[in-house]
């Protein structure tokens, strides 16, 4: 790869970042697209975030991804936060337009684009059940609610958090809350199940967040976990005739949309998918 005085820089800010797949995926993407950028990961402690942003702005860094634990705190250092990121309450992508810093959130839109690309689903026809009510549920719930799904039910271990998310999403669509114990009753009329908790994530690959007996063949089951690519929930869903959608798609498309924000060019999606799949083997 040719690097010279005109090469642009894009970054990742997180803490930790050493195991991130983004540097490899983004550098391959820039190379494949023939764009003069390099992507570097920076481990930034929470108390250093403001200094880091001032430095990136001064250095003319074109943009950056933001990951745990900075997705909320970054907002106070930006000039503008777009409407979607504001509604979700978190930023994962920043664009530096000649010193003006704008924050976006591509997690929810990335999820939606992946779901549509991979399943061809008509989102507006869906009755959705979201398990979990954390940051990922909030981003995906916002994307589904604003895309016009018919109804969203939220189920979470901590009921108050489910109630808070359902009330928030109620700005855009009909919502309600059920206890985890009542999931089977709701599953009967659900067409899209979104699993957003960490239950079943590597190395706890045998765990499953709900009893599989209620899964059926009219469902699309989406698990936001990407490691493993096929969680136990997705395996059980497939056995019962449901269509399955892995969290790898959301990870891929949130990066695709970030790439497009920085460069204004279509991202080389298949190259990025290959890098991700290989790195998660
Ligand atoms: P993320 O950004 O990945 O969404 P998060 O904001 O920490 O992470 O949210 C984690 C979600 O997984 C929450 O809904 C959490 O439930 P609580 O709100 O009750 O904490 C859920 N979760 C994590 N571990 C869980 C477990 N062992 N059983 C059930 N739910 C769990």
TrEMBL record:
Homodimer. One of its GO terms (cellular component) is cytosol. GO terms for molecular function: NADP binding; quinate 3-dehydrogenase (NAD+) activity; shikimate 3-dehydrogenase (NADP+) activity. The active site is at residue 71. The keyword DNA damage does not apply. Coiled coil: none annotated. This is Shikimate dehydrogenase (NADP(+)). Pathway: Metabolic intermediate biosynthesis; chorismate biosynthesis; chorismate from D-erythrose 4-phosphate and phosphoenolpyruvate: step 4/7; Aromatic compound metabolism; 3,4-dihydroxybenzoate biosynthesis; 3-dehydroquinate from D-quinate (NAD(+) route). Keywords: Amino-acid biosynthesis, Aromatic amino acid biosynthesis, NADP, Oxidoreductase. CDD domains: NAD_bind_Shikimate_DH (cd01065). Pfam families: SDH_C, Shikimate_DH, Shikimate_dh_N. Shikimate binds at residues 20-22, 67, 92, 107, 226, 254. Involved in the biosynthesis of the chorismate, which leads to the biosynthesis of aromatic amino acids. Catalyzes the reversible NADPH linked reduction of 3-dehydroshikimate (DHSA) to yield shikimate (SA). GO terms for biological process: amino acid biosynthetic process; aromatic amino acid family biosynthetic process; chorismate biosynthetic process; shikimate metabolic process. Belongs to the shikimate dehydrogenase family. It catalyses: shikimate + NAD(+) = 3-dehydroshikimate + NADH + H(+); shikimate + NADP(+) = 3-dehydroshikimate + NADPH + H(+); L-quinate + NAD(+) = 3-dehydroquinate + NADH + H(+).
């Amino acid at each position: 790869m040719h690097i010279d005085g005109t090469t642009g820089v894009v970054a990742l800010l997180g803490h930790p970042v050493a195991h991130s797949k983004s540097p490899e995926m983004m550098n391959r993407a820039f190379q494949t697209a023939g764009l003069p950028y390099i992507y570097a990961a920076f481990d930034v402690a929470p108390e250093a975030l403001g200094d880091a942003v001032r430095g990136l702005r001064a250095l003319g860094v074109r943009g950056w991804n933001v990951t745990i634990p900075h997705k909320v705190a970054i907002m106070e250092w930006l000039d503008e936060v777009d409407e979607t990121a504001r509604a979700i309450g978190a930023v994962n992508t920043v664009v530096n337009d000649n010193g003006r810093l704008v924050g976006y959130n591509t997690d929810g839109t990335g999820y939606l684009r992946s779901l549509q690309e991979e399943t061809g689903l008509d989102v507006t026809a869906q009755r959705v059940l979201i398990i979990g009510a954390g940051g990922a549920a909030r981003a995906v719930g916002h994307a589904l609610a604003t895309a016009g799904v018919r109804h969203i039910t939220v189920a979470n271990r901590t009921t108050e958090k489910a109630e808070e998310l359902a009330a928030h999403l109620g700005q855009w669509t009909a919502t309600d809350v059920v206890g985890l114990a009542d999931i089977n009753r709701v599953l009967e009329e659900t067409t899209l199940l979104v699993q957003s908790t960490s239950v079943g994530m590597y190395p706890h690959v045998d765990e499953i967040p709900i009893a599989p007996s209620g899964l059926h063949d009219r469902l699309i089951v989406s698990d936001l976990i990407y490691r493993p690519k096929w969680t136990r929930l997705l395996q059980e869903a497939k056995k019962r005739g449901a269509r399955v959608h892995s969290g790898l798609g959301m990870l891929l498309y949130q990066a695709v949309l970030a790439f497009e924000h920085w460069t204004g060019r279509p991202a080389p999606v298949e190259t990025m998918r290959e890098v991700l799949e290989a790195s998660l083997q």
